[in-house]
Amino acid sequence: MVINLAADANEAMEVFRKISKAIERFLGSLSIDYLGFIPSDERLPLAVKQQRAVLEIYPKAPSSRSLTELAKTISERPVERRVNGSVQFFWKQLLQSHQQLERNGGID
Known about the structure:
Blueprint: E1 2-6, H1 9-27, E2 36-39, H2 43-50, H3 54-57, H4 62-76, H5 87-103
Parallel strand pairs: 1-2
């Protein structure tokens, strides 16, 4: 699970704990993993207004940095099987595209 628009890591963990408790109470055997959080920052609404990815136009924004770290975390997680259409594949491709942009000087 990724907590979106959290003020900080403490708030994100508190939200995760509450959701985790609800899942345990109502769904029993289902478990979820905490993967991180995307902080709220002033660049997010600007990117939305421009209809562009925050990572693309504000790569140094806190949310962009968190997205990059999240992509690394997800792409490096061991899985039992690899499927080209999986969520891990999506994050790995996103991370590789971002790294290529950085190498080519296309982002700040």
